[in-house]
Amino acid sequence: MTMSMDFTGKVVVVIGGTSGINRGIAERFAEHGAKVAVASRKQDKVDDTVAALRRLGGEAMGFTADVREAEAVDAGMQAVHERFGPFDVVVSGAAGNFPALANDLSWNGFKSVVDIDVRGTFHVMKAAFPRLRKPGASVINISAPQSFLPMQAQVHVCAAKAGVDMITRTLAVEWGPSGVRVNSVVPGPIDGTEGMARLAPDAGARRRALAGVPLGRFGAPVDVANVCLFLASDFGSYVSGTVIPVDGGWAQTGCGGMSDYLGNLAVQGAAGRG
After folding, report:
1. Is residue 4 part of a domain?
2. Domain with 96 in it
3. pTM for this entry
4. pLDDT band for position 272 (cuts 50, 70, 90)
5. Burial of residue 108 (number of CB atoms within 10 Å: 0-12, 13-18, 19+)
6. HSE-CB of 186 using CA atoms within 13 angstroms
7. What is the pLDDT of residues 114-164, one digit of tens each?
8. H-run or E-run covering 243
9. From the centroid of its chain, how far is CA 120?
10. Chain centre distance of CA 165
């Protein structure tokens, strides 16, 4: 069998694909010939990303939806299916995060993150499945190290991302007989992203984060995108139900003391509000 990283004619849907890591994933698939659809909550961001994808030479479209709204996600997926046909790859990347100690976290704050990450992932999976190419489709959920590393001020994210990874593992079992593979990818400290700016907002925090990366550099969106290409390609055809960190070894050091840093940040924030 000839194996290839050529996605010419393949249909790729990236939820949350208008910024940061997810946009990098969308652009990487477009560079490899895919027809790419992106989705986010803001029409201007969708329009900007679609234009960028088309400049890369491929077909592209987008739709607006909040992943917490199942009907909107399903309608958007249907529009993509009607135009492009069965989905070969679906990347679910919507997420929410902010540092807050459990005792300071509101009921609504916890619910908001769980709704985006867990319910949102389920809505994307539910809407995608009947429109996936079977056999052969690859589904990729974007997770986080909080799914397997407890961190202070991240009880909501830890619970939510653990839920995302269990969705991945469960669907790998349920959908495997249909020839559909489901995996999670865990980005590490990816430079130039909103998440990185939030978790390492100043030079000191960046130095602290970098010191915990065994490979000695921050990642880039293309690093995560390349692993998604692998998982979606012929080379990843026997990989399913996995949770793959793309972090330069960051998780092996406990994410460079990120738990203590976020805990202290949350304490300072609570003191300031007091």
Report:
1. no
2. 11-269
3. 0.95
4. low
5. exposed
6. 23
7. 999 999 999 999 999 999 999 999 999 999 999 999 999 999 999 999 999
8. strand 243-246
9. 12
10. 11
* Residue 259 token pair: 């738990």
Sheet with strand 181-187: strands edge to edge: 60-64, 35-40, 11-15, 89-92, 138-142, 181-187, 243-246
What is the C-alpha to C-alpha distance for residues 73 and 63, in angstroms, rounded to an integer? Answer: 9
Strand (E) or helix (H) holding 244:
strand 243-246
| CA-wise closest residue to 17 among 32, 31, 27 | 27
Residue 104 domain flag: yes
| Domain presence at residue 253 | yes
CA atoms within 13 A on the CB side of 24: 19
Tokens standing for residue 223 = 């690093």
Give residue 97's identity as a one-letter amino acid code.
Answer: N
Q: Could you tell me which residues come within 8 angstroms of residue 177 by beta carbon, excluding any fewer than 6 positions away?
A: none
Strand partners, 243: 184
Own/partner contacts of 42-50, CB < 8 Å, gap of 24 or more, are 42/18, 45/18, 45/19, 46/18, 48/18, 49/17, 49/18, 49/19, 49/23
Kindly give, in sequence order, each residue whose CB lies less than 8 Å from that of residue 139, ignoring residues fewer than 6 positions away.
89, 90, 91, 92, 125, 128, 132, 171, 175, 180, 181, 182, 183
CATH classification of the domain holding 163 = 3.40.50.720
Amino acid identity, residue 159? A
Q: Look at the chain and report how many structural domains it folds into.
A: 1
Residue 3 lies in a domain: no
Instruction: Please check whether residue 26 is in contact with residue 36, taking contact to mean a CB–CB distance below 8 angstroms.
Output: yes
Strand-pairing partners, residue 149, are none
